[in-house]
Design goal:
The chain is of the alpha/beta class. Helices cover 46% and strands 16% of the residues. It has one domain: TIM Barrel (Alpha-Beta Barrel). It has 6 helices and 6 strands; from the N terminus they run βαβααβαβαββα. The longest helix has 14 residues.
Length: 134
Amino acid sequence: MSDRRIIVYSLDQAVAAAEVAASLKKPLTLMSARGMASFMGPLWFKKLLELTARDDVATTGVLDCADEAGTAMAALRAGIPCVRFTGDEATRARLDEMARPIGARVEGETPSATLDLVDRRDVVTACRDFLAAD
C-alpha cells in the first residue's frame, strides 16, 4: 500500500485518480473522507474500489470509520482491505488483531502525504501533481 493517499468523494474522482496512477505507473491508495463509512456504508466503498480496479495499476483502499468500532467490523466483514479507526488505541489494536487473519488491517493515523479532492476542480491535474511528487 502506498503511503500517499487520495481522498475521493465520487466514482468519477476515483476513476480519474486510477487513470493518472496508471499513466504514471504508480500504485494508488484511495481513501474515503473522515467517517464516510457511517453514512455511505462499506458496500458503497467496496463497489467504488471494484469499479476503479485496473490491471495496470495496483489499487487499494482505506475506509474511514471514525471512532465507530461496529462500523469498522462491518467494513472488515464486507471485505474492505484497510479500515481507519480513530477511537481509542486499545480498541484499534483489538480490531486489527481480528482483521489480520482475513488479510485486512486497521490503522489509526493517516499519513501526512494525503491529497483531499473535496474542492478540487481539476482532479486530473491535482492527482498528477500529487502522485508525480513521490
